[in-house]
Design brief:
The complex is a heterodimer of chains A (238) and B (292). Chain A has ten helices and ten strands. With 238 residues, chain A is an alpha/beta fold. Chain A has one domain (2-89, 158-236): Rossmann fold, CATH 3.40.50. In chain A, helix 4 (111-125) crosses helix 6. The termini of chain B are far apart. Chain B has a two-stranded antiparallel ribbon with strand order 1-2. The longest helix of chain B has 33 residues, at 2-34. Chain B has a single domain (2-118, 130-278), classed as ABC transporter involved in vitamin B12 uptake, BtuC (Orthogonal Bundle), CATH 1.10.3470. Chain B has 292 residues and is mostly helical. Classes of the chains: A alpha/beta (238), B mainly alpha (292).
Chain lengths: 238, 292
Amino acid sequence: MLVVENLHAGYGLSEVLDGTSLEVRSGAVVALIGANGAGKTTTMRAISGLVRPSRGRVLLDGAEVQGMEAARIARLGVAHSPEGRKVFGPLSTEDNLLLGAYRHLPRFFGFRARAARDLDRVYELFPRLKERRGQPAGTLSGGEQQMLAIGRALMARPKVMLLDEPSMGLAPVIVQEVFRTIRRLKAEGVTMLLVEQFARSALEVADYAYVMERGRIATEGTPDQLRRDERVLAAYLG
Amino acid sequence: MPLSIYAQMTVSGALIGLIYALIAYGFQLTYATSKSINFGQGELVMVSAFFSLTLVDLGLPYALVVPLGLLFGALLGLAVERAGVRLALEQKSEGWILLTIIIGLFLFSAAENIWGRDDRPFPTPIPSDAFQVLGVDVTPLEVSVAVGVFAVMGLIELLKRGTLLGKAFEAVANDRDAGELMGISATRTVMLSYGLSGAVAALAGILVSPITTVGPTMASALVLKAFSVAVVAGLDSGFGVVLVGMFLGALESLASFQLGSGWREVPGLLLLILALAVRPTGLFGKAVIRKV
């Protein structure tokens, strides 16, 4: 599904990614954990095209996508729910969701009817969003905005979903709700790459995990293997 | 009857004000997607008017001249985006300001060399014999200005509000990167807005030419007024530019009638200074809602 090989990327002269490699198989949930500044977010941004990799390859279903415009990678089926949620504040909740489905909706008319089933699915998953459908997204609470960001990514019917720090800045109760949602999406077969500060919770939902340090993958394995790894235990699960 | 003279001045001034509003709307279209405007917009108005005049001289019917003129304007808009704006935006620089001014100067010189420096009349099939509405003389030509401005602005606003593409425009304006993540190409959206803006400029040129004349300097005063209107109304309110444009047009016409034609430009500049001092986001500008 998604393969990252020896990826190098950075901002200006500072190189953040120094040869990252990872793989997300179809239907799997893969967690990417590590300290702040290890390059987790940059990995996601390099996959989705927001940062242009200087070296290395990103393969989606076997085809190279690195170096493409972000919009093109998104249209190929990568839905990136970015750090900080980045909902479109002045637009209504429902418009945000409709834009999530941009890649397979008609541009002018009839897009509402075409999106109806996807919308129902997201509203069923997040009833709160249905209540707030007409409200500007900028006025939603942090938790609601996170649900909107996940819902918006789902609307794309993505091949793979990139979730960057979905629990960031949320109250513990809401964090639990976010992880319940992720578990449910996993059960429905959504392929996900998950970046998380809460390594413990991330390992609970993941099928496989990578630990990042200074722009490279330091360790990898199944959650069970990582939980038994003394170093990982001390550094990230302590 | 002095009162009806004032009414007359107000109405014909307001109609010219609609042209200011239309040009200001062209600024808004590109500002919405890219936070940039074409400082050579006046030259787009002028060159498109000359181009349309040439088509008229070649004997093409008016019904064909208008769409071809709009198409020409749209192509010019696209050229401005490609040559003057895209690279600057990609590098997050303000270079587009200077580049669009330079493209404007280039178009100005080109027009002088191709079409000459003289002002020329623009023949139109729309009659200019006045008829009376509530004691005010109105010409079909002036009515055509109002109809053209409202039809095109209304159509574009409908498309922006009612289509997914319009929402995509707004999304890119709000957050370029997040828009890209939805599969909306920011580059293409900005291109489209410059194309539309160019077509709007061409329409302004075609509508105003029969009333004024066509010449290299025809748009320099217009565009200055349009800029005042855009700033006073706010760069995000299509409704606002129409109101402010008509108000300014009427005010100018009354000022030049009452105080002499030398005073014509004064109200616009006063309005601009006042607006910048009191309400820099514009009278109809939206306060940004942000919650973190």
